[in-house]
Design brief:
single chain, about 525 residues, alpha/beta, 8-stranded mixed beta sheet, 4-stranded antiparallel beta sheet, 16 strands, about 15% strand
Protein backbone atom coordinates (compact mmCIF):
# COMPACT_ATOMS: atom_id res chain seq x y z
CA UNK A 1 0.00 0.00 0.00
CA UNK A 2 1.31 3.44 -0.93
CA UNK A 3 1.47 6.48 1.34
CA UNK A 4 0.88 4.79 4.66
CA UNK A 5 1.32 7.95 6.71
CA UNK A 6 -2.08 9.43 7.61
CA UNK A 7 -2.50 13.03 6.56
CA UNK A 8 -4.15 15.80 8.47
CA UNK A 9 -7.03 16.72 6.21
CA UNK A 10 -9.15 19.82 6.15
CA UNK A 11 -11.97 20.73 3.84
CA UNK A 12 -11.17 23.71 1.60
CA UNK A 13 -12.63 26.95 2.91
CA UNK A 14 -15.05 27.26 0.03
CA UNK A 15 -16.31 23.73 0.57
CA UNK A 16 -16.57 24.14 4.33
CA UNK A 17 -18.50 27.36 3.90
CA UNK A 18 -21.03 25.49 1.81
CA UNK A 19 -21.97 23.30 4.75
CA UNK A 20 -25.02 25.20 5.92
CA UNK A 21 -28.65 24.20 6.36
CA UNK A 22 -30.61 23.87 3.15
CA UNK A 23 -33.20 26.48 2.38
CA UNK A 24 -35.33 24.65 -0.17
CA UNK A 25 -38.59 23.01 0.90
CA UNK A 26 -37.01 19.56 0.56
CA UNK A 27 -33.93 20.60 2.48
CA UNK A 28 -35.95 22.30 5.18
CA UNK A 29 -37.81 19.07 5.68
CA UNK A 30 -34.49 17.22 6.05
CA UNK A 31 -33.16 19.78 8.52
CA UNK A 32 -36.35 19.62 10.57
CA UNK A 33 -36.17 15.82 10.72
CA UNK A 34 -32.50 15.94 11.71
CA UNK A 35 -33.25 18.45 14.47
CA UNK A 36 -36.12 16.40 15.88
CA UNK A 37 -34.38 13.06 15.63
CA UNK A 38 -30.95 12.97 13.97
CA UNK A 39 -30.74 10.37 11.23
CA UNK A 40 -28.00 7.77 11.41
CA UNK A 41 -26.49 6.00 8.41
CA UNK A 42 -25.33 2.38 8.21
CA UNK A 43 -23.82 1.83 4.79
CA UNK A 44 -22.90 -1.79 4.04
CA UNK A 45 -20.95 -2.39 0.84
CA UNK A 46 -19.49 -5.54 -0.62
CA UNK A 47 -17.10 -6.15 -3.49
CA UNK A 48 -18.26 -7.85 -6.72
CA UNK A 49 -21.67 -8.88 -5.42
CA UNK A 50 -23.92 -9.03 -8.42
CA UNK A 51 -27.70 -8.74 -8.41
CA UNK A 52 -28.08 -12.22 -9.96
CA UNK A 53 -26.80 -13.65 -6.68
CA UNK A 54 -29.26 -11.88 -4.40
CA UNK A 55 -32.64 -13.56 -4.18
CA UNK A 56 -34.74 -10.39 -3.93
CA UNK A 57 -33.46 -9.69 -7.46
CA UNK A 58 -33.09 -13.19 -8.90
CA UNK A 59 -34.32 -16.50 -7.50
CA UNK A 60 -32.46 -18.81 -9.89
CA UNK A 61 -29.40 -19.46 -7.79
CA UNK A 62 -29.42 -18.85 -4.05
CA UNK A 63 -31.36 -17.53 -1.10
CA UNK A 64 -30.19 -14.39 0.73
CA UNK A 65 -32.79 -13.99 3.50
CA UNK A 66 -31.10 -11.19 5.42
CA UNK A 67 -30.37 -9.03 2.41
CA UNK A 68 -33.94 -9.69 1.33
CA UNK A 69 -35.14 -8.38 4.71
CA UNK A 70 -33.88 -4.96 3.71
CA UNK A 71 -35.74 -5.07 0.40
CA UNK A 72 -38.87 -6.59 1.92
CA UNK A 73 -39.20 -3.98 4.66
CA UNK A 74 -37.76 -1.11 2.62
CA UNK A 75 -37.02 -0.46 -1.04
CA UNK A 76 -35.22 -2.21 -3.86
CA UNK A 77 -33.76 -0.15 -6.70
CA UNK A 78 -34.34 -2.08 -9.91
CA UNK A 79 -32.22 0.20 -12.09
CA UNK A 80 -29.12 0.79 -9.99
CA UNK A 81 -25.81 1.30 -11.79
CA UNK A 82 -22.19 2.33 -11.27
CA UNK A 83 -20.12 4.97 -13.05
CA UNK A 84 -16.97 2.85 -13.51
CA UNK A 85 -17.17 -0.88 -12.87
CA UNK A 86 -13.98 -1.38 -10.90
CA UNK A 87 -13.37 -1.50 -7.16
CA UNK A 88 -11.18 1.52 -6.38
CA UNK A 89 -12.79 3.88 -8.89
CA UNK A 90 -16.25 2.87 -7.76
CA UNK A 91 -15.38 3.59 -4.12
CA UNK A 92 -14.00 6.99 -5.07
CA UNK A 93 -17.23 7.80 -6.94
CA UNK A 94 -19.23 6.77 -3.89
CA UNK A 95 -17.20 8.88 -1.44
CA UNK A 96 -17.13 12.03 -3.55
CA UNK A 97 -20.37 11.91 -5.53
CA UNK A 98 -18.33 12.57 -8.65
CA UNK A 99 -17.35 10.66 -11.78
CA UNK A 100 -13.82 9.23 -11.98
CA UNK A 101 -12.37 12.04 -14.09
CA UNK A 102 -13.45 14.53 -11.40
CA UNK A 103 -12.35 12.66 -8.27
CA UNK A 104 -9.04 11.62 -9.86
CA UNK A 105 -9.20 7.87 -9.18
CA UNK A 106 -9.74 6.41 -12.64
CA UNK A 107 -7.88 3.10 -12.36
CA UNK A 108 -6.59 0.63 -9.78
CA UNK A 109 -3.36 0.39 -11.78
CA UNK A 110 -2.29 4.03 -11.84
CA UNK A 111 -4.45 6.01 -9.41
CA UNK A 112 -3.95 7.09 -5.79
CA UNK A 113 -6.91 8.66 -4.05
CA UNK A 114 -6.38 12.28 -3.05
CA UNK A 115 -7.43 12.10 0.58
CA UNK A 116 -7.45 15.87 0.94
CA UNK A 117 -10.49 16.34 -1.32
CA UNK A 118 -13.97 16.76 0.12
CA UNK A 119 -15.96 13.55 0.72
CA UNK A 120 -19.32 12.91 2.29
CA UNK A 121 -17.80 11.63 5.61
CA UNK A 122 -15.97 14.96 5.98
CA UNK A 123 -19.10 16.97 5.37
CA UNK A 124 -20.93 14.82 7.91
CA UNK A 125 -18.16 15.33 10.45
CA UNK A 126 -18.50 19.09 10.02
CA UNK A 127 -22.22 18.72 10.61
CA UNK A 128 -21.63 17.00 13.98
CA UNK A 129 -21.71 13.36 12.90
CA UNK A 130 -19.37 10.70 14.21
CA UNK A 131 -18.00 8.65 11.31
CA UNK A 132 -16.36 5.23 11.12
CA UNK A 133 -15.29 2.68 8.53
CA UNK A 134 -14.25 -0.93 9.01
CA UNK A 135 -13.09 -3.30 6.30
CA UNK A 136 -12.01 -2.71 2.73
CA UNK A 137 -10.77 0.69 1.58
CA UNK A 138 -8.65 -0.09 -1.50
CA UNK A 139 -7.80 3.51 -2.43
CA UNK A 140 -4.00 3.35 -1.85
CA UNK A 141 -3.93 6.25 0.64
CA UNK A 142 -5.31 5.81 4.15
CA UNK A 143 -8.84 6.87 5.11
CA UNK A 144 -9.60 10.50 5.88
CA UNK A 145 -12.84 11.96 7.18
CA UNK A 146 -13.38 9.24 9.77
CA UNK A 147 -13.27 9.49 13.56
CA UNK A 148 -12.57 5.77 13.77
CA UNK A 149 -11.25 3.35 11.16
CA UNK A 150 -9.57 0.00 10.67
CA UNK A 151 -9.02 -1.14 7.09
CA UNK A 152 -7.38 -4.09 5.37
CA UNK A 153 -4.25 -3.58 3.26
CA UNK A 154 -5.08 -3.67 -0.45
CA UNK A 155 -7.61 -6.37 -1.22
CA UNK A 156 -7.40 -7.91 2.24
CA UNK A 157 -7.10 -11.54 3.33
CA UNK A 158 -10.05 -13.84 3.96
CA UNK A 159 -8.23 -15.94 6.59
CA UNK A 160 -6.65 -14.47 9.73
CA UNK A 161 -6.58 -11.05 8.07
CA UNK A 162 -4.36 -8.06 8.71
CA UNK A 163 -5.83 -4.67 9.59
CA UNK A 164 -4.17 -1.27 9.39
CA UNK A 165 -4.97 0.71 12.53
CA UNK A 166 -5.23 4.45 12.96
CA UNK A 167 -1.78 4.59 14.61
CA UNK A 168 -0.23 3.07 11.48
CA UNK A 169 0.31 -0.43 12.88
CA UNK A 170 -0.70 -3.42 10.78
CA UNK A 171 -1.98 -6.25 12.99
CA UNK A 172 -3.15 -9.74 12.06
CA UNK A 173 -6.31 -11.04 13.71
CA UNK A 174 -7.61 -14.58 13.99
CA UNK A 175 -10.74 -15.61 12.17
CA UNK A 176 -12.65 -15.08 8.95
CA UNK A 177 -12.61 -11.58 7.51
CA UNK A 178 -16.35 -11.08 6.98
CA UNK A 179 -17.07 -12.04 10.59
CA UNK A 180 -14.31 -9.81 11.94
CA UNK A 181 -15.45 -6.73 10.02
CA UNK A 182 -18.95 -7.18 11.40
CA UNK A 183 -17.67 -7.69 14.94
CA UNK A 184 -15.58 -4.53 14.77
CA UNK A 185 -18.55 -2.56 13.45
CA UNK A 186 -20.94 -3.78 16.13
CA UNK A 187 -18.35 -3.20 18.85
CA UNK A 188 -18.02 0.41 17.68
CA UNK A 189 -21.79 0.85 17.77
CA UNK A 190 -22.05 -0.65 21.23
CA UNK A 191 -18.90 0.46 23.04
CA UNK A 192 -16.85 3.09 21.22
CA UNK A 193 -19.00 5.79 19.63
CA UNK A 194 -20.33 8.91 21.29
CA UNK A 195 -23.99 7.99 21.71
CA UNK A 196 -24.97 11.64 21.95
CA UNK A 197 -24.07 12.17 18.31
CA UNK A 198 -25.64 10.92 15.09
CA UNK A 199 -23.33 8.57 13.22
CA UNK A 200 -22.39 7.29 9.80
CA UNK A 201 -20.95 3.78 9.89
CA UNK A 202 -19.44 2.25 6.74
CA UNK A 203 -19.19 -1.55 6.89
CA UNK A 204 -17.19 -2.38 3.77
CA UNK A 205 -16.46 -6.03 3.07
CA UNK A 206 -13.88 -7.77 0.90
CA UNK A 207 -16.52 -10.36 0.14
CA UNK A 208 -17.42 -11.45 -2.52
CA UNK A 209 -14.10 -10.68 -4.22
CA UNK A 210 -11.95 -13.20 -6.05
CA UNK A 211 -10.73 -15.79 -5.17
CA UNK A 212 -13.86 -16.69 -3.24
CA UNK A 213 -12.38 -18.35 -0.16
CA UNK A 214 -15.24 -19.47 2.08
CA UNK A 215 -15.47 -19.57 5.84
CA UNK A 216 -14.53 -23.11 6.87
CA UNK A 217 -17.97 -23.64 8.40
CA UNK A 218 -19.57 -23.04 4.97
CA UNK A 219 -17.34 -25.25 2.83
CA UNK A 220 -19.85 -28.07 2.45
CA UNK A 221 -22.65 -25.83 1.18
CA UNK A 222 -24.08 -26.04 -2.38
CA UNK A 223 -22.00 -29.10 -3.29
CA UNK A 224 -25.08 -31.01 -4.47
CA UNK A 225 -26.33 -28.13 -6.60
CA UNK A 226 -25.81 -28.09 -10.36
CA UNK A 227 -26.38 -24.73 -11.99
CA UNK A 228 -27.78 -24.23 -15.47
CA UNK A 229 -25.14 -22.89 -17.83
CA UNK A 230 -26.14 -19.42 -19.10
CA UNK A 231 -27.56 -19.41 -22.62
CA UNK A 232 -24.72 -17.20 -23.86
CA UNK A 233 -21.95 -19.07 -22.03
CA UNK A 234 -20.49 -20.01 -25.41
CA UNK A 235 -20.77 -16.51 -26.86
CA UNK A 236 -18.67 -16.10 -30.03
CA UNK A 237 -18.59 -12.27 -29.68
CA UNK A 238 -19.57 -11.68 -33.30
CA UNK A 239 -19.59 -7.96 -34.07
CA UNK A 240 -17.98 -7.16 -30.70
CA UNK A 241 -14.17 -7.13 -31.03
CA UNK A 242 -13.59 -5.63 -27.55
CA UNK A 243 -15.58 -8.47 -26.00
CA UNK A 244 -13.59 -10.98 -28.05
CA UNK A 245 -10.26 -9.51 -26.85
CA UNK A 246 -10.95 -9.74 -23.08
CA UNK A 247 -9.13 -12.17 -20.77
CA UNK A 248 -11.84 -13.05 -18.25
CA UNK A 249 -13.12 -16.29 -19.72
CA UNK A 250 -14.14 -19.01 -17.31
CA UNK A 251 -12.92 -21.61 -19.79
CA UNK A 252 -9.53 -20.00 -20.52
CA UNK A 253 -8.65 -17.56 -17.74
CA UNK A 254 -10.08 -18.94 -14.49
CA UNK A 255 -7.00 -20.34 -12.78
CA UNK A 256 -7.35 -23.98 -11.81
CA UNK A 257 -5.43 -23.48 -8.53
CA UNK A 258 -5.77 -19.81 -7.56
CA UNK A 259 -9.48 -19.60 -8.39
CA UNK A 260 -10.70 -23.18 -8.14
CA UNK A 261 -8.39 -24.51 -5.37
CA UNK A 262 -7.25 -27.67 -7.25
CA UNK A 263 -3.86 -27.67 -5.58
CA UNK A 264 -1.40 -30.20 -6.99
CA UNK A 265 2.36 -30.37 -6.44
CA UNK A 266 3.05 -31.20 -10.08
CA UNK A 267 0.84 -28.48 -11.60
CA UNK A 268 2.22 -24.98 -12.09
CA UNK A 269 0.07 -21.93 -12.73
CA UNK A 270 1.01 -18.22 -12.70
CA UNK A 271 -1.05 -17.57 -9.57
CA UNK A 272 -0.20 -20.70 -7.60
CA UNK A 273 2.21 -18.88 -5.27
CA UNK A 274 -0.38 -16.26 -4.42
CA UNK A 275 -2.93 -18.94 -3.61
CA UNK A 276 -0.44 -20.74 -1.35
CA UNK A 277 0.15 -17.47 0.50
CA UNK A 278 -3.60 -17.02 1.01
CA UNK A 279 -4.24 -20.45 2.47
CA UNK A 280 -0.89 -20.31 4.27
CA UNK A 281 -2.46 -17.73 6.57
CA UNK A 282 -4.61 -20.46 8.15
CA UNK A 283 -3.71 -22.04 11.45
CA UNK A 284 -3.38 -25.82 11.62
CA UNK A 285 -6.98 -26.41 12.70
CA UNK A 286 -8.42 -24.22 9.95
CA UNK A 287 -6.16 -25.80 7.35
CA UNK A 288 -7.14 -29.31 8.41
CA UNK A 289 -10.83 -28.57 7.81
CA UNK A 290 -10.00 -26.87 4.51
CA UNK A 291 -7.86 -29.73 3.21
CA UNK A 292 -10.32 -32.39 4.35
CA UNK A 293 -12.97 -30.73 2.21
CA UNK A 294 -10.98 -29.97 -0.92
CA UNK A 295 -8.67 -33.01 -1.19
CA UNK A 296 -11.35 -35.47 -2.38
CA UNK A 297 -12.50 -32.93 -4.99
CA UNK A 298 -8.88 -32.40 -6.10
CA UNK A 299 -8.26 -36.14 -6.43
CA UNK A 300 -11.45 -36.65 -8.42
CA UNK A 301 -10.71 -33.70 -10.71
CA UNK A 302 -7.25 -34.85 -11.75
CA UNK A 303 -8.43 -38.44 -12.15
CA UNK A 304 -11.06 -37.34 -14.68
CA UNK A 305 -8.55 -35.41 -16.83
CA UNK A 306 -11.28 -33.19 -18.26
CA UNK A 307 -10.86 -31.08 -21.37
CA UNK A 308 -12.84 -28.88 -23.74
CA UNK A 309 -16.51 -28.30 -22.98
CA UNK A 310 -16.50 -30.69 -20.01
CA UNK A 311 -13.65 -28.80 -18.34
CA UNK A 312 -15.25 -25.41 -19.01
CA UNK A 313 -18.55 -26.44 -17.44
CA UNK A 314 -16.81 -28.15 -14.50
CA UNK A 315 -14.98 -24.87 -13.82
CA UNK A 316 -18.27 -22.99 -14.03
CA UNK A 317 -19.90 -25.23 -11.41
CA UNK A 318 -16.97 -24.87 -8.98
CA UNK A 319 -16.90 -21.11 -9.50
CA UNK A 320 -20.60 -20.79 -8.74
CA UNK A 321 -20.38 -22.91 -5.59
CA UNK A 322 -17.37 -21.09 -4.16
CA UNK A 323 -18.89 -17.69 -4.91
CA UNK A 324 -22.17 -18.62 -3.23
CA UNK A 325 -20.44 -19.85 -0.08
CA UNK A 326 -18.87 -16.42 0.36
CA UNK A 327 -22.26 -14.78 -0.22
CA UNK A 328 -23.79 -17.01 2.45
CA UNK A 329 -21.35 -15.74 5.09
CA UNK A 330 -21.96 -12.17 4.01
CA UNK A 331 -25.73 -12.58 4.26
CA UNK A 332 -25.40 -14.08 7.75
CA UNK A 333 -23.36 -11.09 8.86
CA UNK A 334 -25.80 -8.57 7.41
CA UNK A 335 -28.39 -10.33 9.54
CA UNK A 336 -26.30 -9.70 12.65
CA UNK A 337 -26.20 -5.97 11.90
CA UNK A 338 -29.95 -5.80 11.28
CA UNK A 339 -30.65 -7.74 14.47
CA UNK A 340 -28.48 -5.35 16.49
CA UNK A 341 -30.19 -2.27 15.10
CA UNK A 342 -33.63 -3.77 15.73
CA UNK A 343 -32.83 -4.95 19.25
CA UNK A 344 -31.53 -1.49 20.16
CA UNK A 345 -34.54 0.35 18.67
CA UNK A 346 -32.36 2.17 16.15
CA UNK A 347 -34.21 1.47 12.93
CA UNK A 348 -36.66 4.37 13.26
CA UNK A 349 -33.87 6.91 12.81
CA UNK A 350 -31.31 4.92 10.80
CA UNK A 351 -30.98 4.62 7.04
CA UNK A 352 -29.57 1.17 6.24
CA UNK A 353 -28.07 0.86 2.78
CA UNK A 354 -26.73 -2.28 1.13
CA UNK A 355 -24.94 -2.25 -2.19
CA UNK A 356 -21.83 -3.49 -3.98
CA UNK A 357 -19.07 -1.63 -5.77
CA UNK A 358 -20.33 -3.09 -9.06
CA UNK A 359 -21.94 -6.15 -10.57
CA UNK A 360 -20.19 -9.30 -11.76
CA UNK A 361 -20.46 -11.97 -14.44
CA UNK A 362 -21.70 -15.36 -13.34
CA UNK A 363 -20.94 -17.12 -16.60
CA UNK A 364 -22.83 -14.71 -18.86
CA UNK A 365 -20.85 -14.36 -22.11
CA UNK A 366 -18.65 -17.10 -20.66
CA UNK A 367 -17.12 -14.67 -18.18
CA UNK A 368 -16.22 -13.91 -14.59
CA UNK A 369 -15.13 -10.43 -13.38
CA UNK A 370 -16.66 -7.05 -14.34
CA UNK A 371 -15.34 -3.83 -16.09
CA UNK A 372 -17.57 -3.78 -19.18
CA UNK A 373 -20.56 -1.47 -19.53
CA UNK A 374 -22.67 -4.53 -20.31
CA UNK A 375 -25.57 -5.01 -17.94
CA UNK A 376 -24.23 -7.64 -15.55
CA UNK A 377 -21.33 -5.46 -14.38
CA UNK A 378 -22.82 -2.00 -15.04
CA UNK A 379 -25.70 -2.83 -12.71
CA UNK A 380 -25.26 -3.17 -8.98
CA UNK A 381 -27.71 -4.20 -6.24
CA UNK A 382 -29.07 -1.41 -4.05
CA UNK A 383 -31.58 -1.92 -1.24
CA UNK A 384 -32.44 0.44 1.61
CA UNK A 385 -34.24 0.14 4.92
CA UNK A 386 -35.77 3.54 5.53
CA UNK A 387 -36.12 5.56 8.74
CA UNK A 388 -39.33 7.24 9.86
CA UNK A 389 -40.63 9.87 7.49
CA UNK A 390 -39.82 7.89 4.35
CA UNK A 391 -42.80 5.80 3.44
CA UNK A 392 -41.95 4.42 0.02
CA UNK A 393 -41.85 0.62 -0.15
CA UNK A 394 -41.20 -1.95 -2.84
CA UNK A 395 -39.40 -1.44 -6.13
CA UNK A 396 -37.90 1.88 -7.18
CA UNK A 397 -37.59 1.83 -11.00
CA UNK A 398 -35.87 5.18 -11.54
CA UNK A 399 -32.30 5.08 -12.85
CA UNK A 400 -29.76 5.73 -10.08
CA UNK A 401 -25.98 5.62 -9.91
CA UNK A 402 -23.35 5.31 -7.21
CA UNK A 403 -22.47 9.02 -7.52
CA UNK A 404 -25.91 9.56 -5.92
CA UNK A 405 -25.02 8.06 -2.53
CA UNK A 406 -23.01 11.03 -1.23
CA UNK A 407 -25.71 13.66 -1.88
CA UNK A 408 -28.33 11.30 -0.44
CA UNK A 409 -26.44 10.97 2.84
CA UNK A 410 -25.79 14.69 3.01
CA UNK A 411 -29.41 15.69 2.46
CA UNK A 412 -30.54 13.12 5.03
CA UNK A 413 -28.25 14.86 7.53
CA UNK A 414 -29.55 18.30 6.62
CA UNK A 415 -26.28 19.27 4.95
CA UNK A 416 -26.35 21.36 1.79
CA UNK A 417 -25.15 19.37 -1.21
CA UNK A 418 -22.15 21.20 -2.74
CA UNK A 419 -22.60 22.33 -6.31
CA UNK A 420 -19.58 20.35 -7.57
CA UNK A 421 -21.13 17.02 -6.55
CA UNK A 422 -22.37 15.40 -9.76
CA UNK A 423 -24.81 12.91 -8.28
CA UNK A 424 -28.31 13.74 -7.10
CA UNK A 425 -29.98 12.93 -3.79
CA UNK A 426 -32.28 9.93 -3.82
CA UNK A 427 -34.40 11.23 -0.94
CA UNK A 428 -37.10 12.68 -3.23
CA UNK A 429 -37.60 9.18 -4.63
CA UNK A 430 -37.87 7.77 -1.12
CA UNK A 431 -40.55 10.35 -0.35
CA UNK A 432 -42.31 9.80 -3.68
CA UNK A 433 -41.83 13.47 -4.48
CA UNK A 434 -40.47 12.91 -7.98
CA UNK A 435 -41.93 10.58 -10.54
CA UNK A 436 -40.07 9.08 -13.51
CA UNK A 437 -41.05 12.02 -15.70
CA UNK A 438 -39.02 14.36 -13.47
CA UNK A 439 -36.04 12.08 -12.98
CA UNK A 440 -32.95 11.59 -15.18
CA UNK A 441 -33.59 9.53 -18.31
CA UNK A 442 -30.03 8.31 -18.96
CA UNK A 443 -26.74 7.45 -17.26
CA UNK A 444 -23.11 8.01 -18.22
CA UNK A 445 -20.28 5.48 -17.82
CA UNK A 446 -16.51 5.60 -18.38
CA UNK A 447 -13.98 2.78 -17.86
CA UNK A 448 -10.23 3.57 -18.12
CA UNK A 449 -8.10 0.62 -16.99
CA UNK A 450 -6.33 -0.62 -20.13
CA UNK A 451 -3.82 -2.05 -20.78
CA UNK A 452 -4.22 -4.02 -17.58
CA UNK A 453 -5.50 -7.26 -16.07
CA UNK A 454 -8.33 -8.88 -18.06
CA UNK A 455 -7.60 -6.75 -21.16
CA UNK A 456 -10.91 -4.91 -21.23
CA UNK A 457 -10.61 -1.98 -23.62
CA UNK A 458 -11.24 1.57 -22.48
CA UNK A 459 -14.74 2.71 -23.21
CA UNK A 460 -17.46 5.18 -22.37
CA UNK A 461 -21.16 5.24 -23.09
CA UNK A 462 -24.69 6.23 -22.26
CA UNK A 463 -27.74 4.15 -21.37
CA UNK A 464 -31.40 5.15 -21.32
CA UNK A 465 -34.45 3.05 -20.50
CA UNK A 466 -34.17 1.09 -23.75
CA UNK A 467 -30.90 1.66 -25.60
CA UNK A 468 -27.21 1.61 -24.80
CA UNK A 469 -24.47 3.25 -26.86
CA UNK A 470 -20.81 2.40 -26.17
CA UNK A 471 -17.58 3.66 -27.72
CA UNK A 472 -14.42 1.57 -27.26
CA UNK A 473 -11.35 3.74 -27.78
CA UNK A 474 -7.58 4.08 -27.19
CA UNK A 475 -6.08 1.25 -29.29
CA UNK A 476 -9.46 0.54 -30.86
CA UNK A 477 -12.20 2.68 -32.41
CA UNK A 478 -15.42 0.70 -32.26
CA UNK A 479 -19.02 1.59 -31.53
CA UNK A 480 -21.75 -0.67 -30.14
CA UNK A 481 -25.49 -0.05 -29.87
CA UNK A 482 -27.95 -2.34 -28.11
CA UNK A 483 -31.72 -2.47 -27.95
CA UNK A 484 -32.12 -3.73 -24.39
CA UNK A 485 -35.82 -4.41 -24.90
CA UNK A 486 -35.26 -6.75 -27.84
CA UNK A 487 -31.79 -7.96 -26.84
CA UNK A 488 -31.46 -7.87 -23.03
CA UNK A 489 -28.35 -10.10 -23.04
CA UNK A 490 -26.53 -7.75 -25.44
CA UNK A 491 -25.64 -10.27 -28.09
CA UNK A 492 -26.47 -8.22 -31.19
CA UNK A 493 -24.56 -5.03 -31.87
CA UNK A 494 -26.90 -3.02 -34.10
CA UNK A 495 -24.65 0.01 -34.55
CA UNK A 496 -24.57 0.97 -38.21
CA UNK A 497 -27.38 -1.42 -39.12
CA UNK A 498 -30.07 -0.16 -41.51
CA UNK A 499 -33.04 1.30 -39.65
CA UNK A 500 -31.03 2.39 -36.58
CA UNK A 501 -30.13 5.86 -37.86
CA UNK A 502 -32.63 7.79 -35.74
CA UNK A 503 -31.89 5.81 -32.58
CA UNK A 504 -28.17 6.30 -33.12
CA UNK A 505 -28.60 10.04 -33.63
CA UNK A 506 -30.68 10.33 -30.48
CA UNK A 507 -28.24 8.32 -28.37
CA UNK A 508 -25.27 10.26 -29.75
CA UNK A 509 -26.98 13.46 -28.63
CA UNK A 510 -27.52 12.00 -25.15
CA UNK A 511 -23.90 10.91 -24.98
CA UNK A 512 -22.65 14.34 -25.99
CA UNK A 513 -24.95 16.03 -23.47
CA UNK A 514 -23.79 13.70 -20.69
CA UNK A 515 -20.13 14.36 -21.43
CA UNK A 516 -20.81 18.08 -21.35
CA UNK A 517 -22.91 17.85 -18.18
CA UNK A 518 -20.21 15.92 -16.32
CA UNK A 519 -17.35 17.83 -17.99
CA UNK A 520 -15.52 14.72 -19.20
CA UNK A 521 -12.41 15.84 -21.13
CA UNK A 522 -12.65 12.75 -23.36
CA UNK A 523 -15.11 14.73 -25.48
CA UNK A 524 -12.25 16.89 -26.70
CA UNK A 525 -10.29 13.85 -27.89
CA UNK A 526 -13.33 12.17 -29.49
CA UNK A 527 -15.75 14.99 -30.34
CA UNK A 528 -19.32 14.09 -31.26
CA UNK A 529 -20.80 16.12 -34.09
CA UNK A 530 -24.16 17.81 -33.65
Amino acid sequence: MKHLNPNTVTIPVAAAAAIVPLVSCTAAKSAEQAQQKPMNIVYIMTDDHTAQMMSCYDTRYMNTPNLDRIARDGVKFTNSFVANSLSGPSRACMLTGKHSHKNGFVSNEISVFDGSQPTFPKYLQNAGYETAIFGKWHLETLPTGFDRWEVVPGQGDYYNPRFIHENGDTIAEHGYLTNIITEKSLNWLENERDKNKPFALLIHHKAIHRDWLADTCDLELFEDTNFPVPENFYDDYEGRPAAAAQEMSIAKDLDIIYDLKMLNDTVKTPLKGTYLAFIGRMDSAQRAVYDAFYQPIIDDFYAKNLSGKELAEWKYQRYMRDYMKVVKSLDDNVGKVLDYLEEHDMLDNTLVVYTSDQGFYMGEHGWFDKRFMYEESFRTPLVMLLPEGFNRRGDVPEMVQNIDYAPTFLELAGVEVPEDIQGVSLLPLLRDEKGPEEWRDNLYYHYYEYPAEHAVKRHYGVRDDRYKLIHFYNDIDHWELYDLQEDPTEMKNIYGKPGTEEVTKRMMAKLKAAQEQYDDPIREQYPIAD
